[in-house]
Specification:
It is built from 13 helices and 25 strands. Helix 1 runs antiparallel to helix 3 and helix 1 runs antiparallel to helix 4. The protein is 36% helix and 29% strand. The protein is elongated. The longest helix is centred in the N-terminal third of the chain and has 29 residues. The protein has four domains: 118 residues, no CATH class; 83 residues, Roll (SH3 type barrels); 65 residues, SH3 type barrels (Roll), CATH 2.30.30.40; 124 residues, Alpha-Beta Complex (endopeptidase fold (from Nostoc punctiforme)), CATH 3.90.1720.10. The strands form seven sheets. Strands 20-25-21-22-23-24 form a six-stranded antiparallel sheet. Strands 8-7-6-3-9 form a five-stranded antiparallel sheet, covered by helices on one side. The protein is α+β, with helices and mostly antiparallel strands.
Length: 428
């Protein structure tokens, strides 16, 4: 009886070990890099087969497993086997198992390899990237893709201020101002000493306090919220239409290089914002990109000689609210105003009373040609010849205006759309 139990136990172990050994051969594909035991499947299978054959000869166990062992036991019992025979077999099995264990230990020491050995001399992990061979053109393309992922910046910075961040000529608080980086505007961080950052943004290059600049992951996350899709005009006098077809009326003309904020791309047409209106331009004549705001130069902030103090003061006061929200029907310079509400609130400080309507404001003051406009004069825009928008001219070919709910109060080129009329309001 003991002999039968031993043979059954041995057979069960053999059956269990066979699938486990087979499964273990896949470990190199699953385990992390390091030293692992790797078995030569062919050699081990051969050893396993020889072992099973040897045991089969000794014990009568074949591929039929328990049935053959039972048959063998029956034959031995019928021949009158006794307990002494069972004890002798026990000792033989114990010796065989001990020999197998010693052989297994020796085999493991010889076959213990690292994953590096399995793969040969080639590098693994990050080393593959560093040693990869690419052409100069492939590296250049990869670099451009990386830049595009950051809106054209390789080391992005975002102004983290409530108004404007001063850009100075040198890294010092008393350094000469060379420009302003508006709230949420972007820059390329060229270098940093932990206190000051050397940046470039638009036409401005200088130094800003690192304390008020987002960089790295925070800058990228902020940029994802701020990035605006723009359509840059690539032809002279782009026609802006009310509807997405060539039969629709032309609202205005936009010059080459000007940018319009994109609402959506609809096949051959691009829906854009013209201040607070949604209009259409041909996709053939614009380049659509995702962009961030940039710095303003001091030249853009200063005015030409011969401009009266009151005009300069009006323009400087108007710029204090740059970036504040657009609210239709509003007149608050801080909480929100529409185009005419913004203008009337600016001029109210200087004792000039204006109506809350761009059409009505166009009938105030003295009409002048657009080429004669000076800082502080009003520039009017519209749908064809019908006025629907007003801005304040601030000199250097620029206007400031409450543009749209998305952009708020902003600075644009005076010809960002075709001006219809200019009016002189101030008496100087």
């Amino acid at each position: 009886m003991k002999r039968r139990e031993i043979l059954c136990l041995l057979t069960g172990c053999i059956l269990l070990l066979a699938p486990m050994r087979a499964g273990a051969t896949h470990l190199p594909d699953l385990l992390p890099v390091g030293t692992i035991n790797v078995f030569d499947v062919t050699e081990r299978d051969a050893e396993h087969t020889e072992s099973v054959d040897a045991q089969t000869k000794d014990t009568g166990v074949s591929d039929n497993g328990i049935e053959d062992s039972n048959h063998s036991n029956k034959e031995e019992n019928s021949n009158g086997s006794n307990a002494d025979d069972g004890n002798a077999d026990k000792e033989d099995i114990a010796e065989d198992q001990e020999a197998d264990a010693e052989e297994s230990e020796a085999g493991t020491e010889e076959e213990e390899l690292s994953l590096q050995d399995i793969l040969g001399e080639s590098s693994i992990g990050s080393g593959v990237i560093l040693e990869a061979t690419k052409t100069e053109r492939e590296y250049a393309e990869a670099y451009e893709k990386a830049k595009n992922a950051n809106w054209g910046y390789t080391n992005l910075g975002i102004a983290n201020v409530d108004n404007n961040l001063n850009v100075r000529a040198v890294a010092a608080e008393d350094g000469k101002l060379v420009g302003k980086l508006p709230k949420d505007a972007a820059c390329e961080v060229l270098d940093s000493d932990g206190t000051w950052a050397h940046i470039k943004s638009g036409k401005v290059e200088g130094y800003v306090s690192i304390e008020y600049l987002l960089t790295g992951i925070p800058a990228k996350r902020r940029a994802e919220e701020l990035a605006t899709t723009m359509a840059r005009v690539t032809t002279d006098s782009l026609k802006v239409r009310a509807e997405a077809n060539t039969d629709s009326e032309v609202i205005t003309l936009v010059p080459n290089g000007e940018e319009l904020e994109v609402a959506s791309v609809e096949g051959d047409w691009v829906k854009v914002y013209l201040d607070d209106e949604e209009v259409f331009v041909s996709a053939e004549y614009v380049e659509v990109t995702s962009e961030l705001g940039t710095a303003i130069t001091m030249t853009e902030l200063f005015y030409g000689q011969g401009v009266s103090d009151v005009r300069v003061d009006v323009c400087q006061y108007a710029k204090e609210f740059l970036g504040n929200p657009y609210v239709w029907g509003g007149t608050s310079l801080t909480n929100g105003a529409d185009c005419s509400g913004y203008v009337l609130s600016i001029f109210k400080k200087y004792g000039v009373s204006l109506p809350h309507s761009s059409v009505a404001q166009a009938n105030c003051g003295t009409t002048i040609s657009v080429s004669e406009a000076q800082p502080g004069d009003l520039i009017f825009y519209g749908n064809g010849k019908s006025i629907n928008h007003v801005a304040i001219y601030i000199g250097n070919g620029q206007v400031i205006h409450a543009s749209s709910p998305k952009t708020g109060i902003r600075i644009s080129n005076v010809s960002y759309r075709s001006p219809i009329k200019a009016v002189k309001i101030l008496r100087d």
